[in-house]
Amino acid sequence: MVLIDPTTIPLIDFARLETDFEGVANEIKDIAATWGFLYIKNTGIQQEQIDRMFEIADVFFNKTSPEEKASTPWGSIENAGYDDRRARKQEKRNYEEYGQNEVTKKDDPKESFAFRKTNSYDQPLPPTLKKVNNEIQGFMRTAHEKVALKVLACLSVSLGLPADYFPKLHNFDSPSFTTLRLLHYPGLTGDDAATPVRLPAHTDHTVVTVLFQHKVMGLQVRPPNLTGEVLEGEQWLDAPIIPGAVLVNIGETMTFLSGGLMKSTLHRVARSPRAEDQGKERFSCVYFCHANEDTKLAMVEGIQGGVKKTPPISCVTGKRVETVKDWIQHRHSRGTALALEREEAAAKQLQAEAGLAITAAA
């Protein structure tokens, strides 16, 4: 078992996979069960490929007209398009479930663009991004094959499953909600420079997430010694930028598939702790790896020690979530007008189910 240091996010060297696959797999399992976050180096992804994604992000966010950017707005059902957080009003509601009260300023400028795989969604793209979409799709496949699938193979083996079990549920050529998201946080100046949190604490809805950081820090991770409701004044860990390494974290879907054995850890975006970063814009590139759309949101048979979790009632359909597609659409739609209506109906249904259970027990 890996000795877990609660003050340092662990680092795994993929160069060891060829000579000690099982050892690396067990280390990743231990880290995923405690930290839920790990750095990985020697992935085989060239730095030039990563830099190119940030060049594309800079052109789109800084040199494209507001009208063109807004021409393909993000939608919760499709989980694709341009998202201007200044225009969204449900920031607080989306994060209340974690027991804390981090609410970003409504005028704190941050924006993103989410790309879906071309085989999953016929996505409309603004001209600036349409001409580079082949590069985007190629980078998505690279991140999938060189990082995500290898992490999934390690988790399969360490959980007592065949090495290809989780990879088969994540076929890049099958429909899924997998996305690549480019994010832009303009530099803070003047009074805004005191803003402590720019994206409140949350967990990802994925199976695994791969983060490519750029030049400015900002990501904070809740360390494993802190559990339960988030309390005011907690000291979270600033995730450093390690040259040549990517940062991987476990998502909520994996907690369902593993019966809770793998941990989806809270994280947030805050001001960089480094003096040299102050006033500078921050870019990040995130690969959100989701399972095939028809994958059942349930603990995998054969996993020992896990506990089956009951999926929620969807705020989109009003029915119990069954598949990963249902799950992602539910999670991304929370806070919308339709979702609020559905959630009220779901709460009444759960109350009715609880009442029936009590009556039956009596």
From TrEMBL:
PROSITE patterns assigned to the protein according to its UniProt record, in alphabetical order: FE2OG_OXY
What region holds the Fe2OG dioxygenase domain? 176-291
GO annotations under biological process?
A: small molecule biosynthetic process
Q: Which family does it belong to?
A: Belongs to the iron/ascorbate-dependent oxidoreductase family.
Residues annotated as region Disordered? 66-85
Specify the protein name. Answer: Fe2OG dioxygenase domain-containing protein
Q: Tell me which domain of life the UniProt entry assigns to the organism this sequence originates from.
A: Eukaryota
Q: Write one Pfam family the protein is assigned to.
A: 2OG-FeII_Oxy
Keyword Metal-binding on entry = yes
Q: Which UniProt keywords apply?
A: Iron, Metal-binding, Oxidoreductase
Molecular function terms, GO-annotated = metal ion binding; oxidoreductase activity
